[in-house]
Amino acid sequence: MKRVAFFPGCLIPARHPAMEFAIRATLPRLGVELVDLDGASCCPDPIYFKSRDKLDWLTVAARNLTLAEDLGLDVVTNCSGCTATLSEAVHLLGDGELRERVNSRLARIGREYRGTSRVRHIATVVRDDVGADAVRESVVRPLQGLKIAVHYGCHLLKPSRVMQVDDPDDPHLMESLVAALGAEPVRHRNWFLCCGKACQGEDIPAAMMRDLLSTVHDEHADILGMICPTCFGQFDHGQKRVGEMFGEDFHTPPVYYFQLLAFAQGAAYDELGFERQRFKPECLRAYQEA
Amino acid sequence: MSAQDDVVRIDFAFKRELARKIEGNLANYCYQCGACVGDCPAARYSDVFNPREIMLKVLYGLEEELLGEDSVLWECTNCYSCHERCPQQVKPVEVIISLKNMLADRGGEPGVASKIIRTFQTTGRTVPPSPAIDRQRERFGLAPLKPVPMDEIRAILGLEAEADAREERQP
Description:
Strand content of chain A: 5-15%
Radius of gyration of chain A: 19 Å
Number of helices of chain B: 11
CATH superfamily of the largest domain in chain B: Alpha-helical ferredoxin
Radius of gyration of chain B: 21 Å
CATH architecture of the largest domain in chain A: 3-Layer(aba) Sandwich
Distance between the termini of chain A: 32 Å
Largest interface: A-B, 58 and 57 residues
Oligomer: heterodimer
Order of helices and strands of chain A: EHHEHHEHHEHHEHHEHEHEHH
Distance between the termini of chain B: 47 Å
């Protein structure tokens, strides 16, 4: 068993517990033991909190990293936002002067950032430490014929100098994980677009999501697969709004990858919380009945 | 700059303030090539957002245009494509976030940001815990959300010191 410090963040445990359930159901079966990080706070979020004060943001991130350092374990994230914040923090804290400034604040609570834990998104752990073959072997319900459009989102891949996960212009991580489920990964023309959650105006994200969903639709994909809960919210709740704004119904259910994995490993459709989604992946039911 | 201006006046006070923010000084390396624009989704979908123009305004220190009423900073998607593309490692997105720090210092932060930060300062999370979410978690066999040690968070953010100072100011 590979042991990792599990950093669930805010969105998944407090808004999408079905995703956390899926992670906890699937990872141990792949030989990854998730050790809970007591005392962890929000990463903190790389959009709003970071925009208020970068030094505060870096200090809170460093505190979270020290919790994993205490356990001598790498940090494993399940949200692209947490991945971005914590990876960026490790990168920035490589600078001695900045590390000193942050550590002088952490000293108030008897903590010190040492830089001994790596930060990795679970999708990366599955690719590198588990491997696609082991995922394929864990599947009892191959999703043969299911077309899954791949949505990477931004912060798993970029900035690549910091994230060091995959080629941001031609990534393969998600395609290989989707293929391991027996499904067909689909790279649509607008695969590289962003979900737009960080924009304050409505126009940019709406137009962007419309273009993205329309190329997913062109490829006749059944599902939009993703690894970030923020992107998920945009494409579930937001898709409804985009449909109303443009008078189009793309009807593309977004699904978090680890729920797909849990389903392929044999979890029942009704166990996975899909009833809470605005766009439900009903197409999966056929695989349960087969 | 207005058409009457013959000389570019650089606001160095603005630039020095920006340089005190983490990675705020990086715009100085910008040579205006525009590599950031081609891949910028906000620029593709908006007539007003252009990361090269934002970096140019930073080079001049045009505070009013960057932090004024019609600031476009919050149209940035935070996608990091500009960071990826920049041959000078300016990290335009990081410069933009540093500018947002300056906007926050001036009280110009959007309401949605203030709300999320208040939630963090009271719960240590950006999505607050609630009995409803714990019931939902229970359905999935998940333990209730654990409280965050807020004394630690307040100490490292200096929130205790701020509260003490406020109390001292009270008559």
